């Protein structure tokens, strides 16, 4: 059988090497951009092949699996495989990368050397993203969880546009490393819970496989401590209030493409880890911690939305909207309802599409300002000046506030209805986040696009074909999944049922 997942992991690294070695072609077309885009599109073709081999009827099982011994002395393996949720997040990673590359066509001030280095990092990050959503070995997952920090750190600090980009990069690194170190302690503690040979004291050569660590008889206090180690690392990555503060700074100071990949894809590692590691490995501890986590999720929903309303920096505003939406995702996971869990899984995909569209369209807008200003107060009246751009921003914004007919609506309704089954009070309070989303989206649109054009903005060019194609792909995906959500729900329903059954079954 063809190793689809290994190919999806390895190919971006090959493409990154090709971009690093590229220069200008004889025809004058910049080589790095064309090489990077071609490599990313080949990755999309590999993704299509992986989807063709995936059996939706067994979406709860890990498929396309490969397992090879890596460090047998400690029981670590190169083990990859995806269930339906993992495959959708791999798809989100693979689809967003060529769009980010196309959107960054004229970034870095036309400096082709800087752009080439940036695109190399984008492709390396893509390999890590695919790998972490495919990992079935806890030690491998941890290594990838930490390795992703390296390209992300440089993409923020070295290539950002904001005045505090280095501060944002260091803050991101410190928060992530702190969570990673705590997670490492939890990984080692979990390893020592695995059965050992009574004569040698050694664990099996595949002791870190998630399948082998599921269902262990762990002392309740120990289980709760290990759970807290994993959960804190995932809460920082997600991010969940109050360990979210790095995200708005990154959104404000990083390149738009970096924010798109970091917030729309990498942060899903946090919620993906909660869903696929915390719940199955620590079911009793998950139930024990659920009331506090649900309360924090509701706070995140309201806090992120309220903070978004008060922002003048457009990119920082979008960052805060993600804090709110991650609150919804975590709420659905920890109310232990099959409907809510499936809704959270679907929302991970939809948030990436909607917020990715909003970030990239905001980048098109900022690139047109004479001073590249990110301040909302320095824009107005662009609906008549750049009508296509205004329409693209409005559709992306409406997707963010979960307008019926768009994919985000179905997933948010599933989360709220499912959460109501497990925690009616939390669901009722979280509904306020839907109202606040309408406020921050429509208010922002009004301030930027209605009224009289601001001084110096009356002759801005509208979006071109490349930019329309980038936004069009995401808008089309939101429309298709909004009208036919079953296309994605087929992949998340049975994994949700299995996860919730595992948590409930441990309580019997």
UniProtKB/TrEMBL annotation:
Give the highest taxon in the source lineage.
Bacteria
Domain NADH:quinone oxidoreductase/Mrp antiporter transmembrane: residue ranges? 135-435
| EC top class named in words | oxidoreductase
List cellular component terms (GO).
endomembrane system; membrane
UniProt keywords (A-Z) are: Membrane, Oxidoreductase, Signal, Transmembrane, Transmembrane helix
User: TM spans, by residue?
Assistant: 85-105, 117-133, 139-160, 172-192, 224-247, 259-282, 288-310, 317-336, 348-367, 388-410, 422-443, 469-489
Q: Which GO terms describe its molecular function?
A: NADH dehydrogenase (ubiquinone) activity; NADH dehydrogenase activity; ubiquinone binding
InterPro entries cross-referenced by the UniProt entry? NADH_Q_OxRdtase_chainM/4, NADH_UbQ_OxRdtase, ND/Mrp_TM
Q: Where in the cell is it found?
A: Endomembrane system; Membrane
| Membrane topology annotation | Multi-pass membrane protein
- Give the Enzyme Commission number: 1.6.5.11
Q: Does the keyword Zinc apply?
A: no
Question: In the record, which residues are listed under signal peptide?
Answer: 1-20
Its BP terms in the Gene Ontology are:
ATP synthesis coupled electron transport; electron transport coupled proton transport
According to its UniProt record, which protein family does this protein belong to? Belongs to the complex I subunit 4 family.
What is the name of the protein in this document? Answer: NADH-quinone oxidoreductase subunit M
Q: Which organism is it from?
A: Antribacter soli
């Amino acid at each position: 059988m063809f190793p689809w997942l290994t190919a999806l992991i390895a190919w971006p690294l090959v493409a990154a090497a090709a971009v690093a070695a590229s220069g200008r072609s004889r025809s004058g077309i910049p080589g790095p951009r064309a090489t990077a885009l071609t490599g990313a599109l080949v990755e999309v073709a590999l993704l299509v092949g992986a989807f063709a081999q995936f059996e939706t009827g067994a979406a709860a099982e890990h498929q396309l699996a490969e397992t090879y011994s890596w460090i047998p002395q400690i029981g670590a393996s190169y083990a990859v495989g995806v269930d339906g949720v993992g495959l959708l997040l791999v798809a989100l990673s693979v689809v967003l990368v060529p769009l980010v590359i196309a959107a960054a066509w004229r970034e870095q001030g036309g400096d082709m050397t800087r752009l080439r280095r940036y695109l190399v990092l984008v492709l390396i990050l893509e390999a890590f993203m695919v790998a972490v959503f495919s990992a079935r070995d806890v030690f491998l997952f941890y290594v990838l969880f930490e390795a992703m920090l390296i390209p992300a750190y440089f993409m923020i600090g070295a290539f950002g546009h904001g005045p505090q980009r280095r501060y944002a990069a260091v803050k991101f690194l410190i928060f992530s490393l702190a969570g990673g170190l705590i997670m490492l302690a939890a990984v080692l503690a979990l390893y020592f819970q695995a059965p050992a040979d009574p004569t040698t004291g050694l664990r099996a050569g595949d002791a870190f496989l998630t399948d082998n660590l599921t269902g262990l008889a762990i002392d309740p206090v120990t289980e709760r401590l290990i759970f807290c180690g994993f959960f804190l690392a995932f809460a920082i990555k997600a991010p969940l209030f109050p360990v979210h503060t790095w995200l708005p700074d990154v959104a404000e100071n990083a390149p738009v493409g970096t924010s798109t990949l970091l917030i729309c894809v990498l942060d899903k590692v946090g919620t993906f880890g909660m869903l696929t590691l915390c719940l199955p490995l620590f079911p009793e501890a998950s139930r024990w911690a659920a009331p506090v986590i649900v309360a924090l999720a509701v706070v995140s929903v309201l806090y992120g939305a309220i903070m978004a309303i008060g922002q003048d920096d457009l990119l920082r505003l979008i960052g805060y909207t993600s804090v709110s939406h991650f609150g919804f995702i975590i709420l659905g996971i920890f109310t232990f309802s099959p409907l809510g869990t499936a809704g959270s899984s679907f929302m991970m995909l939809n948030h990436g599409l909607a917020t990715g569209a909003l970030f990239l369209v905001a980048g098109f807008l900022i690139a047109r300002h004479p001073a590249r200003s990110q301040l909302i107060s320095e824009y107005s009246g662009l609906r008549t000046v750049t009508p296509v751009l205004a329409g693209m921003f409005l559709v992306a914004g409406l997707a963010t506030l979960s307008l019926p007919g768009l994919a985000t609506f179905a997933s948010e309704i599933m989360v709220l209805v499912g959460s109501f089954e497990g925690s009616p009070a939390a669901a009722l309070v979280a509904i306020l986040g839907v109202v606040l989303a309408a406020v921050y989206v429509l208010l922002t649109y009004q301030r930027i696009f209605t009224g009289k054009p601001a001084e110096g903005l009356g002759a801005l060019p509208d979006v071109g074909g490349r930019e329309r194609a980038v936004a069009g792909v995401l808008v089309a995906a939101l429309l298709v999944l909004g009208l036919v959500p079953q296309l994605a729900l087929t992949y998340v329903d049975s994994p949700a049922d299995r996860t919730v059954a595992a948590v409930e079954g441990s309580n019997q």
